[in-house]
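We were asked to recover a plausible sequence for a given structure. The inputs and outputs are reproduced exactly as logged, with field labels preserved.

PROBLEM: sequence recovery
POSITIONS: 84
GIVEN STRUCTURE:
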């Protein structure tokens, strides 16, 4: 039996003071945050697709656009890698 209610998407957002180190626009740049799972909120760092089976949480996919594509903003790359 399929149970769609057991499937989840989790998003991780950073808060100030860490986000204050970056221009707000960086968290909405489509070339950088191409999954667009920020939901209009600044500080989007990563997302995960997960499933719950019994008492287990199974991570199906884990992505950090800002980290993986940080080379697109070389002036912030080192700071992104160190913070996130």
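RECOVERED SEQUENCE:
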């Amino acid at each position: 039996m399929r149970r769609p209610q057991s499937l989840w998407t989790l998003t991780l957002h950073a808060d100030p003071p860490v986000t204050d180190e970056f221009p707000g626009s960086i968290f909405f740049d489509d070339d950088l945050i191409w999954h667009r799972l920020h939901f209009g909120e600044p500080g989007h760092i990563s997302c995960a697709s997960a499933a719950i089976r019994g008492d287990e949480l199974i991570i199906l996919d884990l992505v950090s656009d800002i980290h993986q594509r940080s080379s697109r903003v070389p002036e912030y790359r080192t700071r992104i890698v160190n913070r996130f």
